[in-house]
Amino acid sequence: MASSELLRVFSALEQARVRYLVVGGVAVVLHGHLRVTADLDLVVDLEPTNARAAVAALAAADYRPRAPVPLEQFAEASIRQSWIADKGLTVFSLWSPSSPGTEVDLFVREPFVFATCYARAVMVELEGVTVPVIGLSDLIALKRAAGRAKDLQDADALAAILEEDQHG
After folding, report:
1. Exposed (0-12), middle (13-18) or buried (19+): which is 115, by Cβ within 10 Å?
2. 165 pLDDT exceeds 80?
3. Separation between Cα atoms, residue 96 and residue 109, nearest integer Å
4. Taking 70 as the threshold, does the pLDDT of residue 28 lie above it?
5. First to last CA, the chain
6. CB 83 within 8 A of CB 21
7. Residues 33/69, Cβ–Cβ less than 8 Å
8. Is the per-residue pLDDT at 1 higher than 60?
9. Disulfide: which of 8, 45, 81, 150 matches 19 by Cβ 3.0-4.6 Å?
10. Phi and psi angles of residue 97, each rounded to the nearest 5 degrees, phi first
């Protein structure tokens, strides 16, 4: 995933004053464990005004849903609930024709209490853009809860970084 494309997404969200957290592989890398990731995972504060601002910012950045549904539907809690109940959806995937190799995945439900994790977020400056990244301990917990082999490997690597930070 090209860093210039990540910056374009982060900049669009920052300009729209969207409350979100970077989670997933990009967060793992930003916390210091280098690994390859194919997508950008975001947890958006699903408060309706913020969710609408997020989809407007992403649409303005030329992102559109992989599924054949209007992007604006993501901002509707009842529609997200039906996606979860009827399709088992966990993330809403977006892509951009101007950067077809980049995928942005938005969690359809907050996997944690957003305000609590946001308060503990690490604000990372990337070329003048402030990027809210889930805190290290919260990321470890999220990775362990996901339970997939790659997530557990990430959690172990991140726990070693946390240990080093606390004792180094």
Report:
1. exposed
2. yes
3. 23
4. yes
5. 31
6. no
7. no
8. no
9. 45
10. -65, -25
